[in-house]
Amino acid sequence: MVLALSAALVGCATSPVADQAKLSQQDPKWTSPECQQARIAASDYDSREKDHPGWGFGVLLGPYSMGMVAAVKQHEQQQRRLLARQVHLQCSSQPLPKELDFDPATYAPKKTHYP
Fold this sequence. Notes:
Elements: H1 2-10, H2 16-20, H3 33-51, H4 55-61, H5 66-91
Helix pairs in contact: 1-5, 3-5
């Protein structure tokens, strides 16, 4: 069950670098310092994501690690969406596409209350 759920999550969000390729470089915002910083952050995240072990490492740890791998993949998907949203807001004058029109606070860490 966890494997099927986590497999479904993997393909949900594209790379922020791939998303920025869809934006117009003719947009006046494209050359702004904020846009350049957002594109650098997206590129850095993309390269860091490619450097970690991913699914293969989880399989080596055994079946008990599948939940952990699914949580990592879900976190990566959230980070991709946040970065893609930030790149779009900083680099495009167009309205946010439907898949990026969400409240970023939904991905904020939740406060934990300990007894």
